[in-house]
Fold these 3 entries.
Entry 1:
Amino acid sequence: MKYHQIDRDLFIKNRAKFMGQMKPKSAAIFNSNDIYPISADSTMPFAQHRDIFYLSGVDQEESILLLFPDAPYEHQREILFLKETNDHIAVWEGEKLTKERALAVSGIKTVYWLQEFEKILFELMTHSDTIYINTNEHYRATVETETREARFVKWWKEKYPAHAVAKSNPILQRIRSVKESEELDLIQQACNITEKGFRRILSFVKPNVMEYEIEAEFIHEFIRNRSKGFAYTPIIGSGNNANVLHYIENNQQCKAGDLILLDVGAEYANYSSDMTRTIPVSGKFSDRQKAVYNAVLNVKNEATKMLVPGTIWKQYHIEVGKIMTSELLGLGLIDKADVQNENPDWPAYKKYFMHGTSHHMGLDTHDYGILTEPMQANMVFTVEPGIYIPAEGFGIRLEDDVVIQETGAPFNLMRNIPIEVDEIESLMHS
Ligand SMILES: [Mn+2]
């Protein structure tokens, strides 16, 4: 791990919150992700399942967490099962968590090696009536592989058909969406690393640079600041590439006079940051580019003010749509007739701004959070309006990550990342 060890009090609190929501005589089980194969003996880099990480801090494959608040003995209330390690195994497999390290990382005192799992599980099952299983109910999820978690659930259901089943996911969606101060610090660190990357590329970009050269500058800056890398596949889209919303080829040359849309964020300690900036290849915006840019910036600033406790995500999007409509009228991109005749299910502004304005952000870039429930203090949202104009050869999106406050405007975790036209231009010329 490149990141500094996280204070285990975070994971102790997270488990207490989860256990506080469980039914009597129930246990909950969470699994690591698999290491995914590529072919031959090569694999994808390991990425931990965010739920077991959130509840334990264990950032290692083949780990199982079992929570059983009503267990007959105290030492059975929180149990970790880990892949066995010792000095000999460590020579071959590298450093893995020992039982002592696992306690230091997670605060969990009872740690067994994985080979003891089935025997211990059997005993605990006799004392429990309900088992919480962890299924993925994220609103954007499309999963084609069988995860380690799903494989476990299948095995467990077959083996213990008489137990009642409950869902971990709604509990996790609620507790993970409201961040602890330790988490806000980690997300801030991810944002600070993203800022360093962005400042680095501001002095690097010039006409004829390749999009992938910009990508390389970012990753260089991220890794040297203890990030594992990009929190999500970066979008470096110059000219009309910015109008392809999921453009990730990043293989074109940036031409003088064009804009480049950069949707790039560093991860830190498995926490995401999610930033978008749009900058001029030549270091100066044209008047038209500047007018559209400031329209997007105004929508972003106005939308941010609406992220307060009690706001409902769907209603918020309707209000943002009204602000965007007025900006598009001002830019002459739509006219009054377009608005009068608009289809309420697909308003006129959607021609130029066809995606959502905000999503929860945290351990996942598109983080957990139940969108039908009111916003609360310490939720982290992105704010990311855009205007995409293929006919004019550019698209502009601006995105910051903000924390909802008990009272007043949200706190902007990206407040130090340049966004005003003048500041961007002057940094590109220095
Ligand atoms: Mn985003």
Note: The chain is about 35% helix and 15% strand.
Entry 2:
Amino acid sequence: MIELSNVEKVYQTKEIETLALNQINLKIEKGEFASIMGPSGCGKSTLLNVMGLLDMPSTGSVRIQGEKVTNRKETKLAEFRNQNLGFIFQSFHLVNDLTVYDNVEMPLLYRKGISSKERKERIMSVLEKVGLSARVHHYPSQLSGGQKQRVAIARAIIGSPEIILADEPTGNLDSRMGHEIMDLLMELNKEGTTIVMVTHDEALAQKTNRIIRLFDGSLVN
Ligand SMILES: Nc1ncnc2c1ncn2[C@@H]1O[C@H](COP(=O)(O)OP(=O)(O)OP(=O)(O)O)[C@@H](O)[C@H]1O
Ligand SMILES: [Mg+2]
């Protein structure tokens, strides 16, 4: 489903060069729920961003669903992300001056050939799935942290992506809300979505199929 071959990522700033990812060879299988763990600064977000084509590796290649994607132009990449990938972030990344409905609709607006009636049906159906049917016209500032993350999940799944990439999705939530979000992700995984999640929470990681451990940019076996 996702295959990284000899991936390296170097960040170059004026003062220092950081090898954020060092010779990563990794395969995520279809239907897997994998978690990525490791100390702060070890490269977890970089790895997830490279898997999700939000960032390009300095060397090496990324294949998603068998297609080599690392040498495509940004417009093609954006289209590929929109069709195949759903993203969830620790700080939700919602648009504050749009309602729940409008936030969830956004990914569909980049797709051709979906009528507004069909958009509405899909939006209401994913909002029901995440338990937010009663919050359609709320703004993000009127929601709890857990509710905001559920809006972000609805937005991530509205386009029916095969893969969800989540960077510490429970990081800003208390433990009860964190478990609720985890249950939702596990349900999506049961329905067939491949998920890769960065987490600091060992208990949540233990619920996934596989824990990928990173240290200083390298995979730990
Ligand atoms: N845009 C950037 N420019 C320069 N260096 C960067 C950049 N992004 C990340 N880094 C460096 O790359 C390394 C890996 O960062 P990354 O954000 O992937 O870590 P992380 O494991 O996600 O950490 P955390 O648990 O704190 O989120 C760090 O040393 C970081 O300083
Ligand atoms: Mg990070």
Note: Residues 44-45 surround magnesium ion (ligand 2) (CB under 6 Å).
Entry 3:
Amino acid sequence: MIRVCRPEDLPPGEVVRVTDGVPAPVAVFNADGEFYAVDDTCTHQDASLADGWLEGRLIECPLHAASFDLRTGKPTCPPARQPLRTHRVTVADGYIQLHVTVGEPDHPALW
Ligand code: FES
């Protein structure tokens, strides 16, 4: 479990990129008041999703505009085909806490 930051430091629409203590960078989003965490690197090529555009619970990649559902990690449009790995997020003891998932994403590649 990794302490990310205090909830008030991650307001709706914002993202924090976690690199310490994780096997690969993780992006933690506040999407309309709910916290979600996914691998930060797009599954299409090498782009940071923390630099993308958050629209509701979808994150659009800044490089070629693939979009991913933060709830499942699934891409919702090409060019990305592989899902992102998702990670559990909790709030406890006054902090957002990241529980890193190890292993492959649950969902198969799309299209
Ligand atoms: S790098 Fe993300 S869509 Fe191409």
Note: The radius of gyration is 13 Å.
